[in-house]
Amino acid sequence: MKSVIVGTAGHIDHGKTALVKALTGIDADRLEEEKRRGITIDIGFAHLDLPWPDGEKLRLGFVDVPGHERFVRNMLAGVGGIDLVLLVIAADEGIKPQTREHFDICRLLAVRRGITVLSKSDAVDAETLDVVRLEVEEFLRGSFLDAAQAPIVAVSSLTGAGLDHLKQALAKVAVEVPAKDSTALARLPIDRVFTMKGFGTVVTGTLVAGTIHKEDELEVFPTGKRVRVRGVQVHGEGAEHAVAGQRTALNLAGVAVEELARGMALAPTDTFRATNRMDTRLLLLPGARSLKDHARVHLHAYTMETVAEVRLFDSRELRTGDEQWAQLRLRETALLLPHDRFIVRQLSPLLTIGGGSVLDPFPPARTPVQREVATFLTTLTNGSVEDVLSARVKRRGVSGLPIRDIPAEMNIRPDQAQRLAAGLAGLRQSGQVLIDGTVFTWVSKIVQEAVQQFHDANPLVPGISRDELRDRANVICKKMMRERMPITQEVFQGILHSLAQNKSIELTGDVIRLPGRGVVMRDEEAESKKIIEQAFATAALQVPALNQVLAGLKLDKARAQKLVTLLLRDKVLIKISDQLVFHESALANLRAQVAAQKGKGVARIDVGKFKEMTGVSRKYAIPLLEYLDRERVTRRVGDERIIL
Predict the structure, then answer these.
(1) How far is CA 552 from CA 61, 331, 529, 545, in A?
(2) Per-residue pLDDT tens digits for 429-448
(3) 259-296 as b/e: b if 16+ CB within 10 A
(4) Which of 42, 333, 562, 635 is exposed most, by the fewest CB atoms within 10 A?
(5) What is the pLDDT of residues 265-296, one digit of tens each?
(6) Distance between CA atoms of 184 and 543, rounded to whole angstroms?
(7) Taking a C-beta distance cutoff of 8 angstroms, is the pair 386, 424 a contact?
(8) Which residues touch 114 (CB under 8 Å, ≥6 apart)?
């Protein structure tokens, strides 16, 4: 059964709710105050099954919206997910202010199909009805409701005149509505939250994409709360699942009514991210006052509303009837995805002034370059899915785009993201991060050059550490590309792996060097290295102070220290404390000497016995014993050591 959502629109008291009741038999006014005052205050719902041309049924879900200017915000909460609109105009009043505003809202939301209904046809004579029809045709000319392509049907909810004609027109238009994607990631903007006795927390909304099953785990946006679907209803009937395009009620476990509200949304866990800023194409309606840069507006998208600050990219002012790139900075976070439509209204007086579509829900925090932003947003508007992904990856520069972020940035399933990432030419995949191929090559050259520069400046050091190399490469990228984002660890590891595979660098543990490059020493440096090693080798455990040994060399202090670092790296010398360095052979002899004591029946040794055995003073004895503890030759128990 195909499901289509039909929304009403029109001025107050033009008969929208009466029309829905006449069509469906359901009174969409559910609030006591609505019945007492005789006006629609909040959105209401009804449904109708019609025969489809092929013999199956067509299910229409109606979203009835208030017409009073004070309740346009409620109207906006209901109209966001509709497939077609019934623009209701009373034959005895004609076009009124909210007729125009509701019609503008439908156009801004890119509603493509609809029917114009001349209600209360019984209240006027045939001649007046013809005059109203001509007025309406002129008003709608050139729009999606142009009489040349969209029917205008006169009806009377009181007498039933024209209702059969309207049902036929509804079936014909609804058949033309393309089916929503039930395989996409599910998203349900919440329009009602309540408690039902025996069930608990219930939410309702129009399922705008995907499928939701019983027992699914969903995430509440923007709070991040996780909930479980205990039960599903579609148009008031129990179901195992709901699909895109259906009015849906969900019984939720794991959340209280107080934790939910209209404007929140439900979606699969670990897929989307809430945002508080978005780059858009913003249109200002003809007749609206000019909108200045940094102006604040009311923003409506699906059931969500908040205050947003407008940042214009092209100029300091958006004039009436014009459009341009703009960033909207939201007071509260919300779930917004590419191609979502939105409406903006003046703060005061409350008037609908424009709207547009979300292009980039995750723009960078930095101040953009106007030309680059225009090019990027144009690609998002007109490019293929491959073009869009390439542009998003390129924008991330040396940081790359994690594949896990693609569903949120492009509103596609994770498996689609993986396939798209694997098959797109011009991109490189480093772990689970995508990076532009040109950028990858460029950064690889920078990394290689940074290793070369390190070798040139440090001939006595065998190579550069990974962390230092990444820091150096980031500094160069920042200078050359004004790149603020760092090279991520995954991208850096991918570059190192690629360079190593091509034999452009060699990796030895944490050390990176160019092929064939080791320590390059001059004659005096080689001689000094031998002197240092010999000084400690001959001293055994009675080692001299390191600074005294270095002071006797013909080298400057910096080069002498590098020689010590080299000897320590090669484990020829071993530092056992901040002040004491021993030759490896002396420590090996010490370990053997202590182990031999156990063979002689000595199980324990204290500081005094250790000094007597080795001939060293207490200054050396304590650090040496602590070294033996670390090497698991001995274990300290009180003032003694047990020989292991």
Answers:
(1) 93, 69, 12, 12
(2) 888 899 999 999 999 999 99
(3) ebebbbbbbbeebbbbbbbbbbbbbbbeebeebeeebe
(4) 635
(5) 999 999 999 999 999 999 999 989 999 999 99
(6) 73
(7) yes
(8) 84, 85, 86, 87, 106, 144, 145, 150, 173
Q: Give the three-class secondary structure for 300.
A: strand
The amino acid at residue 382 is N
Handedness of CA 298, 304, 310, 314 (dihedral sign): negative
What is the fold, at CATH topology level, of the domain defined by 275-370?
Elongation Factor Tu (Ef-tu); domain 3 (2.40.30)
131-142 tens-digit pLDDT? 999 999 999 999
User: Taking the alpha carbons of 40, 45, 47, 53 in that order, is the dihedral positive or negative?
Assistant: positive
Domain ranges of the chain: 2-176, 188-268, 275-370, 383-520, 524-643
Backbone phi, psi, residue 62, to 5°? -100, 135
Angle CA(530)–CA(457)–CA(489) in degrees, nearest 5?
110
**Are the C-beta atoms of residues 332 and 264 closer than 8 Å to each other?**
no
Instruction: Answer yes or no: CATH 1.10.10.10 is held by domain 524-643.
Output: yes
- Residue 383's identity, in one-letter code, is G
Least Cα distance to 248 among 216, 279, 283, 278 occurs for 216
**Fold annotation for 188-268:** Elongation Factor Tu (Ef-tu); domain 3 (2.40.30)
Which of 606, 602, 603, 595 shows the shortest CA–CA distance to 638? Answer: 606
Torsion of CA 197, 202, 204, 210, to 10 degrees: -140
- Please indicate whether the domains covering 2-176 and 383-520 agree at the CATH topology level: no
Q: Which two tokens stand for residue 399?
A: 């940081």
Q: At what angle do helices 385-395 and 370-382 cross, to 10 degrees?
A: 150
Q: The CATH number of 2-176 is which of 3.40.50.300, 3.20.20.70, 3.40.50.2300, 3.40.50.10090? A: 3.40.50.300
Radius of gyration from C-alpha coordinates of the chain? 38
Closest by Cα among 362, 351, 293, 364 to 326: 293
Which one of 3.40.640.10, 3.30.365.10, 1.20.1270.10, 1.10.10.10 gives the CATH number of domain 383-520?
A: 1.10.10.10
CA atoms within 13 A on the CB side of 644: 12
pLDDT at 531: 86
Amino acid (1-letter code) at residue 101: E
* Interval 457-483 mean pLDDT: 80
Please report which confidence band the pLDDT of residue 315 belongs to, taking 50, 70 and 90 as the band edges.
confident
Q: Find the angle CA(15)-CA(16)-CA(21) to the nearest 5 degrees.
A: 95
Tokens of 547: 């600074």
Model-level pTM?
0.77
Determine contact, residues 338/358, Cβ cutoff 8 Å. Answer: yes
* Cα gap 265→191, rounded to integer Å: 9
